[in-house]
Specification:
The chain is an alpha/beta fold. The protein has one domain (about 5-130): Rossmann fold, CATH 3.40.50.150. It has helices spanning about 5, 10-15, 30-40, 65, 70, 95-105, and strands at about 25, 45, 55-60, 75-85, 110-115, 120-125. A six-stranded mixed β-sheet has the order 2-1-3-4-6-5, with helices on one face. The protein starts with a helix and ends in an 8-residue tail after the last strand. Mean pLDDT is about 90; it is low at about 1-5.
Length: about 130
């Protein structure tokens, strides 16, 4: 698949948000993204969900935001995902390696990166198959 075809995919498809998915959004102030999410699912909570969810979107601007991964991983289903959304570019406060290291420290692995917007990128974290809660 050429890069042009891949980039033509809708953002929510790239992020794996299925119709009716249970989603939590934390520290991500993006009205356009919220509007897109609401077109795909109505099961969205801001902050900690009461029951496990399919996907958590975590906005991160500094290293201390990444420390939340340890707690947030308890919010997702065993086959769920956490997307960390951060500024991209050479002046960004967080680098890919910062996210990867924080994920590993929380017992998660990264397995996908997408361009979230013109200014932000997102990295997906999941449980290793062998580490998935029963």
């Amino acid at each position: 698949m050429s890069p042009d075809v891949a980039s033509a995919r809708p953002l929510l498809d790239k992020l794996g948000v299925k119709p009716g998915a249970k989603v939590a959004v934390v520290d991500l102030d993006d009205p356009g993204f919220m509007k897109l999410l609401l077109e795909r699912t109505s099961d969205i909570v801001q902050g900690k969900p009461r029951t496990p969810c399919d996907i958590v979107f975590l906005g991160a601007t500094a290293m201390h935001d990444l420390q939340r991964l340890t707690d947030i991983k308890s919010w997702i289903e065993p086959n769920g995902a956490i997307w960390v959304v951060r500024a991209k570019g050479p002046r960004a406060a967080l680098r890919d390696t910062d996210l990867i290291d924080a994920g590993l420290a929380a017992g998660l692995v990264d397995n996908k990166i997408v361009s979230f917007s013109e200014t932000h990128g997102a990295m997906r974290f999941v449980f290793r198959l062998r580490d998935r809660p029963k």
